[in-house]
Write a structure and sequence with these properties.
DNA polymerase, domain 1; two-stranded parallel ribbon; alpha/beta; 20 helices; Exo_C; Nucleotidyltransferase, domain 5
């Protein structure tokens, strides 16, 4: 009989808790004079620079940064307070040509750009993890899986606009950049081993070169629970309440959800209260809300009620792309057949390459190609269409053959 202990899989060693930065917690840089010293130190440093930013999502209006963390060989770690140092262009200049290492770069780059910082080259450890096929790509999970250390993540959702920042929060913030460059080096080697490094470099270059995203059209349509609101007059109430809430939140520098919940907006739209008394009786407009606030919400409801029919919002937002895929079978059965074949082929290839489908080629790109294919569905024409839709060279090379074949799919004959 075989001893069970001989056949049991080896247990992975427990991750080592990372409790303190190796150089200690640096002082917070909160004035221009102190910033000059940080700029000089990082200009004299070497190698990539780890960069992170903390926001006050859920507490403050917008997505501005309330702490910026950096670490570079020869410079150590810096914690910069953007409230006291709102212009970091000198630091950006000092890092010109330096590769930035970020985790989930697209989340932090907008708030860093507001401060005058934007990389010319970057390495995104989260995206690298996705391309390498890691099942969990949060920073803590990646550091644990790749480097064997456990990061304490208990302060990720705190109010980073708090001043002064408590020491445990600063320790957490410093640790977030402590191992980023080490993680970058390990992931680069993993991607090279898998033959995916060039793919990753193309993705990183595209992120660094991307222009700022345009303002969202009709952001009020993202109100949670909006799917319950069907009639145009009700949709108008949602819009007017959302806009009134946004103005109030901006003036108070408070997260909109703390001014009025999405659930309250949807309830008011469905109930259409005729006066303040009826509004106050609805969930979300309870006894803690003052008369002045109730008056402004009722005024928004009344504005929507008084709009002429032609000024009411349409049930769905204007969209210049193809219709929802669920409607394709009725609108264009041939396009539906193409999309079904393309999705199956992309899924199979993504599984074979051990990476998420959306990283192999975005679903929106596949939909647009299948809805409006080129006049001649040759590999060259398909590749040109994919390039026009923003696909990177590595994606075009891998997916053009299978997508070209998918465009020849035909709907099944009726039974």
């Amino acid at each position: 009989m075989t001893d069970a202990r001989e056949t049991a899989p080896a247990q992975a060693p427990a991750p080592v808790p990372l409790l303190d930065p190796r150089d200690g917690i640096p002082p917070v840089t909160a004035d221009p004079q102190a910033l000059e010293g940080v700029v000089a130190a990082f200009a004299a440093g070497s190698g990539p620079v780890a960069v992170d930013a903390e926001r006050a999502s859920g507490y403050r209006y917008g997505q501005r940064a309330y702490l910026v963390q950096l670490r570079r060989a020869g410079a150590g770690t810096a914690l910069i307070d953007p409230v006291g140092c709102p212009d970091l262009t000198t630091l950006n200049s000092a890092l010109a040509g330096t590769e930035w290492v970020l985790h989930a770069a697209t989340q932090d780059l907008p708030c860093l750009t507001e401060l005058g910082m934007h990389p010319t080259a970057l390495f995104d450890t989260e995206l690298a993890g996705r391309l390498a096929g890691f099942p969990r790509v949060g920073l803590g999970a990646m550091v644990e899986q790749v480097l064997g250390y456990a990061l304490e993540k208990g302060h990720s959702a705190v109010d980073w606009s708090t001043r002064p920042l408590p020491e445990p929060w600063l320790r957490y913030a410093a640790l977030d950049v402590e191992l980023l460059v080490d993680l970058r080096d390990a992931l680069e080697e993993e991607l090279r081993t898998q033959g995916k490094l060039d793919w990753a470099l193309q993705e990183f270059a595209a992120i660094a070169a991307a222009p700022p995203p345009p303002p969202r059209v009709d952001p009020w349509r993202r109100t949670s629970g909006m799917h319950k609101v069907r009639r145009r007059r009700q949709i108008g109430v949602v819009r007017e309440l959302w806009l009134a809430r946004d103005r109030a939140a901006r003036e108070r520098d408070v997260s909109p959800g703390r001014v009025l919940s999405d659930a309250a907006i949807v309830t008011a739209a469905l109930e259409n209260p005729p006066n303040v008394q009826a509004l106050a009786a609805l969930p979300g407009f309870g006894h803690r809300m003052g008369r002045r606030q109730l008056d402004q919400w009722q005024a928004a409801v009344d504005r929507a009620r008084g709009l002429p029919e032609r000024e009411l919002p349409q049930p769905t937002a204007a969209y210049n792309g193809p219709p929802p895929p669920r409607a394709w079978a009725d609108k264009d059965p041939a396009a539906a057949a193409r999309l079904s074949a393309a999705r199956a082929a992309v899924t199979a290839l993504a599984d074979e390459l051990n990476l998420p489908q959306e990283n192999l080629i975005t679903p929106d790109t596949v939909r647009r190609l299948c809805w409006s294919p080129p006049a001649e569905t040759t590999p060259e024409a398909v590749a040109a269409t994919l390039a026009d839709l923003g696909a990177r060279p590595w994606q075009i090379q891998l997916t053009t053959p299978l997508l070209t074949k998918s465009l020849a799919a035909r709907p099944a004959p009726p039974q």
